[in-house]
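Collaboration report, partner site 2.

Our partner group contributed sequences for two proteins of shared interest, and the home lab folded both. The records are reproduced in the order in which they were received, starting with the first partner submission.
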Amino acid sequence: MVSAPHEAMHRIFQDHPDLFSGVSKVLGVDFAPPTSVTLMPTDLTEASPLERRVDTLLRLDTEDDEPLLLAVEAQGKKDPDKPASWAYYASYLLTKYRLQPILLVVCQDHATAKWAEEPVTFGPPQWPLLTLRPLVAGPHNMPLITDSAEVRKDLALATLAAITHAKNPEIGPILKAVTTVLRDEPDAVKNPVIEFISRGLGKLPAAALWRTLVAVDLSFYKSPLFEEVREEARAEGQAEGRAEGQAEGRAEGRAEGWAEAILDVFAARGIDVPEPVRERVINCVDPESLRHWLRRAAVALSADAIFADD
């Protein structure tokens, strides 16, 4: 049952709404006197509850016996409505679980990451009531891991770094370092990593580069992505085979596929391809040479550098 002091402490503001101006001055905060006052409903229960879902929620039990609730949000662009939703998540999690929440926002571009990490205050400027400060992981602060030795130290971190740097012009060496390490990993480790990166790159140009790197050695990986690449190569070979004979057609189809992959890699990395290089690649019919050039295309600083050791 609500006590009389409880009632008195808040009901007086209903009868004397101007009281807030006097109280605020006593507390050293200057609020302008209200020009009108409307008594609002006190029931904050949502009549039609909205579905609110955080992307990922984890309970982290720590060595110091202070568990945390980690909410992870993937943010693709600036959204002025998001900070209010994130503040709601934090308040709800604290109320429901009585554990301290922390918000991690993961981004793929600098502008969104910088926007997301800016503290947001709620309440009047004279006395902000809440301050939202998410942790942000993005291309502005995630490491550029291009060394396979560094990838081996923390494969999960390298995977996230590759995803967050999906729009980076240097994404080629990053992805190449990952595939180099994955060749020595068991299927249970490498299969999820390859799928995570494939999904994380989405439809960005780097996705074509990743598919190509995975397909360079088709024997080291089998998954839906592998099957899709293999079927594309098979279809190319069959199309050529119907015109000029299956055996010869498959060989030419594979050669054309490798040549197109090399040019796709350069396009994804933003490297200009001079016409002599383009003609040499397209006119090559030796699959081994093309495969070798494709591997070098992922890390070469210029288009003609793929022929350096020929």
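Second partner submission, folded after the first:
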Amino acid sequence: MQRRLIDRFGRVHDYLRISVTDKCNLRCVYCMPEEGMEFAPDERTLTFEEIYEVVRVLAGLGVRKLRLTGGEPLVRKNLEQLVGKLSAIPGIEDIALTTNGIFFAGKAEQLRAAGLTRVNISLDSLRADRFALITRGGDIRKVLDSLEAAYRVGLDPIKINVVLMRGLNDDEIDDFLKLTLERKLHVRFIEYMPIGHDDDGWRNKYVPLSTVLERCEANGWRAAQSETVYGNGPSQNYRIEGAAGAFGLIHPVSDHFCQTCNRLRLTADGNIKPCLYWSDEFNVRPLIGDDRAVEDLFFRALDIKPENHEMAEALKQQGQSHTPTIRRMSQIGG
């Protein structure tokens, strides 16, 4: 009988998020500090072959969907080679990429040919000066070029990730919603999360995603929940009446979606994270090559996965049942 990755709460895990590097060419304000980040040396980063071996084992346990993340995954050379290796594994049906879009335009055709099925492009502002401020130096023109490249090579759906931040980009909600009226893309609004923050700064910038629906109402746009947008994550999806595209709300703080969690994470340095927020990690790298030991470690990680991440308690500054991670989002893979 085939073993399946099912935790003690009955949640079936068929989705693995793989961080291929903790390095990034940008320094987005919600992800990492401007200076002082210490990145893992290359020898501590999983090789493509090691990632392949882990995924091969997990495919035998029912994992069907993968997402490559970072840091910025495209700072890793020859990423299309990894995509090709992973797409050839029996049972793997979907390979997605989350990228900041700076390098994607030049790699879109190679990645698509290798087996990439979908892309999420981070774009937290549509204004060039503000985008440069949030990313600490990013060029929005390169991101927009990457968006067009994704259309050109036929990736579908194409998603834009927007982390809403009070006083930084929350006045652009209408502009992002208008994009969905005109084009077949999916804008995903994401709540600011307390990942790796040791101060209260994130609370000051936190915006509940109920604000997005309020903006729809204020503009006279009728938005209804939609199940037509394909995805593996926790987005609650909507479509404005008559719109070519759709938008989604990812609200881990105001309304957690832990009861339907289907994902595990593999960090660039080889750690299994059963939950994004908590500090628990299990290093699988020394076990690669021993398929049964790799399986057992993933089951061990699932055994301690909590029922929810309690980010709402962090917002309210209430006590929590576990220890939050001190790793930055770029070190975990989101």
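Feedback sent to the partner group on the second submission included the following. Residues 15-332 form a domain with the TIM Barrel fold (CATH 3.20.20.70). DSSP finds eleven helices and twelve strands in the chain.
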